[in-house]
Amino acid sequence: MLEVLESSVPAMQDAETLAENVFRRIQAAIVKGEIAPGSKISEPELARTYGISRGPLREAIHRLEGQRLVVRIPHVGARVVSLDPAQMIELYEIRESLEGLACRLAAERMSQAQIDELRQVLDTHERDEAFQAGVGYYQQEGDFDFHYRIIQGSGNQTLYRMLCGELYQLVRMYRIQFSTTPNRPRQAFAEHHRILDAIADRDGELAELLMRRHIGASRRNIERHYQAAPERGEA
Fold first, then answer.
1. How far apart are CA 196 and CA 190, in angstroms?
2. From 12, 85, 123, 228, which residue has the greatest number of CB atoms within 10 Å?
3. Phi, psi of 140 (to 5 degrees)
4. Cβ atoms of residues 176 and 227 within 8 Å
5. Which one, of 104, 95, 114, lies nearest residue 206 by Cα?
6. Which of 30-44, 89-103, 211-225 has the highest mean pLDDT?
7. Each residue of 145-199: pLDDT tens digit?
């Protein structure tokens, strides 16, 4: 009996690893726009695409719902989230306020080592090929994400859960979508440097103001996009 239990442990671990792997792959495809916003989630199609059974796939979809990347619509089924312009502006208004606060706290609480690491993050961003070509901004997640590092550096766990928990990947999806706007990558990079300088100077008030302006600029960029959409004939 013990041998049976022991032999079942690797199988359980393999199943968990497979579920985690497919979750990460679908999450990345949604965030990067490879699975378009508003797309219907077809379990048979995804099962074929990722070579996975329906059980781990459904678990992955459920987790994506928790991250607000997938929504379930009555009588329609699961779809990739597609925020309307008003919802997107609301999301950025929330970011503007909460990330501004996180930035002020980071200026007060980040260690010198954390600030030095944040400079290294920006150095990595500057060397990115897409950024060098002027066609996008570095969009890796977690420790390679300038915003994530600052929120983490705020030392406020409630802020961290709010901004780096269920909202994080949804925000990343729209940050990536609008990062290719002409001239925006260079502007955002310059804004990041000014924010970091304020944090390094321990000027929490200025750091908060600069972060709010930075996210406000992104919000206005989105507003201009949707104002111009009818002229381009977009839905």
1. 10
2. 85
3. -75, 160
4. no
5. 104
6. 89-103
7. 899 999 999 999 999 999 998 788 888 888 887 766 667 778 888 999 999 999 9
